């Protein structure tokens, strides 16, 4: 089973506005509501790809109720802890540019944190736990590391798509996959990543003997994967980028779906990149058929 954790889920409220004017009255031409948060997105795509998944995390209020109902409609299992406070709404404004306003999220008590850790303790050997997204301010940045340690004890695979202090904290902790984008990797090592060589050098530093695989996505410039056997580069398919929300989450889902189906890291990597681009070229998260179609356009090169 692949479990995902979203500590700070959201309703993603997508607003399309022609020629947005700051400080003026703008009227949206189209609006959409989606269940959001990075872990939830990973679960939604896995489910589209017929991979069994359960979404965990904290949820509450009418917004939390909406998310649970939307996940049920999409046949995504969930087992959230109720915070008794409203889950946030994140605004994604699509005009000539994409702008995002993400809410802060609720306070999570020590008891609620403990309850989530107890759920993680129930994982079995071979399960996957994917943690992705921001950590609410009332929780320690080391919370992901605590979950990773518990996964190691249970022989479950730990996967993280995070940045900043939470990512730094995972260096030296056993993980199956880390997936920063090149900006997040640069920020971690206080540098700017301009080339794939820069990305490879710093991905290896992040891998630091304890991560099995590190993927660094570089938007339209492709992606690299390093592990203890080889270094790979994947191109991205060509297309019109419509939506970056959830593209990074799609890379993680595609990789895991490919890995669970084939046990082959190269194939999983190609599938992850195809899934990322399929979402980037769609209005919402990608559909399975489109991911399969784009997979044919992704070539994985073994660099060393
Ligand atoms: N211009 C593009 N052309 C094709 N694919 C793209 C493009 N931009 C992004 N993608 C796809 O989306 C994936 C993730 O993009 P990116 O590297 O920007 O990660 P991210 O910043 O984590 O994503 P997100 O914007 O969802 O947070 C890429 O690996 C690629 O598959
Ligand atoms: O505020 P966070 O937790 O960093 O990111 C949350 C978020 O922007 O990430 C997802 C896309 O990756 C969206 O569904 C959601 O709104």
Automatic annotation (TrEMBL):
<comment type="function">
    <text>Catalyzes the ATP-dependent phosphorylation of fructose-l-phosphate to fructose-l,6-bisphosphate.</text>
</comment>
<dbReference type="GO" id="GO:0005988">
    <property type="term" value="P:lactose metabolic process"/>
</dbReference>
<dbReference type="InterPro" id="IPR022463">
    <property type="entry name" value="1-PFruKinase"/>
</dbReference>
<dbReference type="GO" id="GO:0005829">
    <property type="term" value="C:cytosol"/>
</dbReference>
<feature type="domain" description="Carbohydrate kinase PfkB">
    <location>
        <begin position="6"/>
        <end position="280"/>
    </location>
</feature>
<protein>
    <recommendedName>
        <fullName>Tagatose-6-phosphate kinase</fullName>
        <ecNumber>2.7.1.144</ecNumber>
    </recommendedName>
</protein>
<keyword id="KW-0808">Transferase</keyword>
<dbReference type="GO" id="GO:0008662">
    <property type="term" value="F:1-phosphofructokinase activity"/>
</dbReference>
<comment type="similarity">
    <text>Belongs to the carbohydrate kinase PfkB family. LacC subfamily.</text>
</comment>
<keyword id="KW-0067">ATP-binding</keyword>
<dbReference type="InterPro" id="IPR029056">
    <property type="entry name" value="Ribokinase-like"/>
</dbReference>
<dbReference type="InterPro" id="IPR017583">
    <property type="entry name" value="Tagatose/fructose_Pkinase"/>
</dbReference>
<dbReference type="GO" id="GO:0044281">
    <property type="term" value="P:small molecule metabolic process"/>
</dbReference>
<keyword id="KW-0547">Nucleotide-binding</keyword>
<dbReference type="GO" id="GO:0009024">
    <property type="term" value="F:tagatose-6-phosphate kinase activity"/>
</dbReference>
<dbReference type="GO" id="GO:0005524">
    <property type="term" value="F:ATP binding"/>
</dbReference>
<dbReference type="GO" id="GO:0016052">
    <property type="term" value="P:carbohydrate catabolic process"/>
</dbReference>
<dbReference type="Pfam" id="PF00294">
    <property type="entry name" value="PfkB"/>
</dbReference>
<dbReference type="InterPro" id="IPR002173">
    <property type="entry name" value="Carboh/pur_kinase_PfkB_CS"/>
</dbReference>
<comment type="pathway">
    <text>Carbohydrate metabolism; D-tagatose 6-phosphate degradation; D-glyceraldehyde 3-phosphate and glycerone phosphate from D-tagatose 6-phosphate: step 1/2.</text>
</comment>
<dbReference type="InterPro" id="IPR011611">
    <property type="entry name" value="PfkB_dom"/>
</dbReference>
<keyword id="KW-0418">Kinase</keyword>
<comment type="similarity">
    <text>Belongs to the carbohydrate kinase pfkB family.</text>
</comment>
<dbReference type="GO" id="GO:2001059">
    <property type="term" value="P:D-tagatose 6-phosphate catabolic process"/>
</dbReference>
<keyword id="KW-0423">Lactose metabolism</keyword>
